[in-house]
Amino acid sequence: MKIVVLGGGESGCGAAYLAKKKGLEVFLSDKSAIKEHYKQFLTENNIEFEEGNHNEERILNADWIVKSPGIPKKTEIINKIHQKGIRLSSEIEFASEFTDAKIIAITGSNGKTTTTSLIYHILKNDGLNVGLGGNIGHSFAKQVADENHEYYVLEVSSFQLDDIQNFRPYISLLLNLSKDHLDQYNYDYEEYALAKFRITENQENDNFFIYNKDDEMSKNILEKLEIKAKMIPFSMNEKLTEGGFVDENQLVIKLKDEFSMKVDELSLLGNHNVANSLAASIAGKILEINNESIRNSLMTFQAVEHRLEFVAEIEGVKYINDSKATNVNAAYYALESMKNPTVWIVGGVDKGNDYAEIEDLVKRKVKAIVCLGLDNEKIIDFFKNKKELIYSTSSMEEAVKVSKSLSKSGDTVLLSPCCASFDLFKSYEDRGNQFKEQVLKN
């Protein structure tokens, strides 16, 4: 069988490595330059590859093509693959064909990385043999090739779910839905939502689907879809007879037996993280992890880098790095969790943001807005009659300097940009790292 892998990053190299290890004929093609350490990896493992080009004849002669999630689905080469009827899969689909491990797969518009990491922490803390992959950590395919895990906890994006055929997690979680990546889904919110729901399409009645009962779009979609998996809800707004909910500052899970703990004991900040903790706890209970172990994991989990990450407290001012907040919904959660007057650093590449969604929160929580981007006009125009203190900056150094001058003891400086990072930074990680570096400068 001829396997062609498109994309020479973490997932692509992992998929090519797994194919090679399984004795399949494999060729990797990347239209851009491949990073040096990945080239070295491919060479060391005798995997044939090309960069800066797509050899169409060779690609279209494949039996099975594995596509990296970063390649847009409307590109010319993808159209030609579809026309030829060649099987096109994501790395998670490809790798899942070569393992019998139980897969716990997490998707949603926000909170995926935190919840995936939290579930991994719960399993690991209980002594289970577990791997972490998908959109986070090391390639799932490479782990399947080299490590014999009994469980995999995978963060899964809509782009990866677009390219599945048989992928069937033991437990799937859909945390929430909000408008994101609509440019890849014909600017149709429902089309994007349906892509997320593909996480459960191959599940059977011996599988589990954990979903957010408070999420409006999820409710709408669930009225139209027939889900075969056992559905278990969580809610922040209502008590449930089965599932997870909050009752008088207690996090409560009701499945076969009951688990509860005080919300104040959770290591994570913010209401959205209470919801994430509910979802993660349900997964733990399904896997029959005992209550004490789940409680211990929820109390000891460390926030994921760039997601409401506490950086420092300097002269009474707290600095929080939420660089991963690349859409309005993510920034909403961050602002909602702020307890003190907040200097808000916002801006970057706008993805069609509607700032009306956070207008009320900004009025109540934010004392000053510091815009950070090459083009701050849209943010300034929206908030100019709503907030007196609005500043425009075009570098992280300047943004932090202005924020420090505006804040006093008892305040919080929050980087929660609402936007993509590519105008001034290599990635949201680069943006977050620069923020931390500038905060910690004398």
Automatic annotation (TrEMBL):
SUPFAM superfamilies associated with the record: MurCD N-terminal domain (SSF51984), MurD-like peptide ligases, catalytic domain (SSF53623), MurD-like peptide ligases, peptide-binding domain (SSF53244)
Subcellular compartments: Cytoplasm
Claim: Secreted is one of the keywords in the record: no
Protein name per UniProt: UDP-N-acetylmuramoylalanine--D-glutamate ligase
Pathways per UniProt: Cell wall biogenesis; peptidoglycan biosynthesis
PANTHER family: UDP-N-ACETYLMURAMOYLALANINE--D-GLUTAMATE LIGASE
EC number of this enzyme: 6.3.2.9
UniProtKB keywords: ATP-binding, Cell cycle, Cell division, Cell shape, Cell wall biogenesis/degradation, Cytoplasm, Ligase, Nucleotide-binding, Peptidoglycan synthesis
Chain's gene name: murD
Membrane-spanning residues: none
Domain Mur ligase central: 106-283
One GO CC annotation: cytoplasm
Function field: Cell wall formation. Catalyzes the addition of glutamate to the nucleotide precursor UDP-N-acetylmuramoyl-L-alanine (UMA).
Highest taxon above the source species: Bacteria
GO MF annotation list: ATP binding; UDP-N-acetylmuramoylalanine-D-glutamate ligase activity
UniProt domain Mur ligase C-terminal: residue ranges: 306-418
Residues that hold ATP according to the record: 108-114
Family to which this protein belongs: Belongs to the MurCDEF family.
Species in which this protein is naturally found: Chryseobacterium turcicum
One GO BP annotation of this record: cell division
Gene3D superfamilies: Mur ligase, C-terminal domain, Mur-like, catalytic domain, NAD(P)-binding Rossmann-like Domain
Reaction it catalyzes: UDP-N-acetyl-alpha-D-muramoyl-L-alanine + D-glutamate + ATP = UDP-N-acetyl-alpha-D-muramoyl-L-alanyl-D-glutamate + ADP + phosphate + H(+)
